[in-house]
Amino acid sequence: MDDTIHAGTDTDSRYVVATYRLRDRADTLEARAEGIAIGLTIGTWTDLPNARKAQVAAHCGRVEGIRVIDEAAPGGVIAEIDIAYPVANLDTTFASLLTTVFGKLSMDGEIRLQRLHLPEDLERAYPGPKFGVSGVRERFGVYGRPLVMSIFKACAGLTLDELVDQFGEQAAGGVDLVKDDEIFFSEVHASAAERVVAYREKAREVAAQTGRETAYAVNLTGPVHQLRDKAKRLAELGAGALLVNVVAYGFDVLADLARDPDISVPILAHPAVSGALYGSPNYGIAADIVLGQLMRLAGADMGIFPSMYGSVTLGGEATEQLLAHLRKDGVHRKVLPAPSAGIYPGLVPQLYRDFGIDLILNAGGGIHGHPGGASMGGQAFFDAISAVQQGQSLQAAAVDKPALAAAIAKWGARA
Ligand code: 1AE
Predict the structure, then answer these.
(1) Residues identified as active-site
(2) What are the φ/ψ torsions at residue 308 (nearest 5 degrees)?
(3) 127 lines ligand 1 (CB under 6 A)
(4) Is it true that domain 132-411 has CATH number 3.30.43.10?
(5) Could you report the per-residue pLDDT of 76-130, keeping only the tens digit for each?
(6) Under 8 Å between Cβ of 397 and 334
(7) What residue stretches are annotated with the Ribulose bisphosphate carboxylase large subunit ferrodoxin-like N-terminal domain (predicted)?
(8) Ligand 1 neighbourhood includes 311 CB (under 6 angstroms)
(9) Distance in angstroms (rounded) separating the CA atoms of residues 360 and 349
């Protein structure tokens, strides 16, 4: 490659740096890396006349590093390569970012996007969370402990009255939030607006007895061009939060919602479909980028992801990296993590150890499946929280807490 391509300084605010893990022949690695850097930016370099080179130089990608990770791997070496892409080639959409760093390239054999470094100025161009951890706590009035969220189960086909009953039972357990199931799109029996209004009335009725008003995270559904208006309307009607299937809709849809100052409720990001991106160790995009870095940039206030322990799992290392994206100091507010899938009260001590208190305990089956019903399921989570806060084992606490005792009898408890 012509040296002039390297004329810029080290990685700097003019470049997004993407790190890929790929399998290729050792003797062609360098050419492959250069092919990516040039191919995804200006297309060709060596064939350009000098005047044209000067014109496009600021738009040209460059190879920042090549490291062989496993030289004895079958079918070629495994290597990591770093490619710097000029910010000048991007606008402030995820469409431009993702298409540039992993558009056509994602289809070019065994290659995985492992890390993505954005300069701060570019990060600032994305909205980030409107509420973040402290804003969410303030909005729901929850301090000094994790939030507890219950998930509606089996909603499609139910009448509004039946749904309200289900909401009421969950709220009676004292949970901070009840979220829609992400698969609930049908509005045959009750529109999202009708649900928001009816659940709010129910939440107030329950609060008159419990002293706690449970918020509702409504699934934001429908055609993309209607989402912002719908979100505003649902917020005005009293929705506590908006549940968004971010990967299915696209990160720019979330960013649009987060940027809108009139949408005044926190956004709860669901990871549906994300496994198709991060599931393979050799293809796709690393889970921490999809569910951590991009979610925060796009404006999720609360981020659901598969926990390390439940029915759909994410590995420990991926979880650590994901958490770092949600929580590290940076230009945007921090995101409240909701490790999910198969969460039950007996996991609370482990969740405290792994995540601390800035956390959402999010459970569907672990609340509805409680032998005493959803209300006792929620109560069992609060029993477990108070045991951990007092330094008590769950077994000791369960002696005079029937909801916790029944949960432990059913699902067990981790010390
Ligand atoms: C990681 C997604 C978890 C989810 O969407 C969900 O509905 C979990 O339900 P349970 O708690 O596993 O029943």
Answers:
(1) 104
(2) -80, -10
(3) no
(4) no
(5) 899 999 999 999 999 999 999 999 999 999 999 999 999 999 999 999 999 999 9
(6) no
(7) 12-119
(8) yes
(9) 13
Q: Could you tell me the two tokens for 323?
A: 């958490």
Q: Report which residue type is found at 240.
A: G
Query: C-alpha distances in angstroms, 44 versus 47, 49, 333?
Result: 6, 11, 40
Atom of ligand 1 nearest to the CA of 312: 1
Alpha-carbon span 402 to 408, nearest angstrom: 10
Q: How far apart are CA 127 and CA 75, in angstroms?
A: 42
- Verify whether ligand 1 is closer than 6 Å to residue 402 (CB atom): no
Residue whose tokens read 């490659």: 1
Q: Is 366 in the pocket of ligand 1 (CB under 6 A)?
A: yes
Predicted TM-score (pTM) of the model is 0.94
The alpha carbon of residue 370 and the mean position of all alpha carbons in its chain are separated, in whole angstroms, by 27
Give the integer Cα–Cα distance in Å for 233 and 196: 10
Please check the confidence at residue 277 and state whether its pLDDT lies above 70: yes
Are 227 and 197 in contact by the 8 Å Cβ rule? The answer is no
Q: How is domain 3-124 classified at the CATH fold level?
A: Alpha-Beta Plaits (3.30.70)
Select from 149, 150, 151 the residue to mutate for testing ligand 1; criterion: most ligand atoms less than 8 Å from CB.
Answer: 151
Quickly list DSSP for 263-303. Answer: --S-EEEE-TTTHHHHS-SSSEE-HHIIIIIHHHHHT-SEE
Where exactly are the structural domains of the chain? 3-124, 132-411
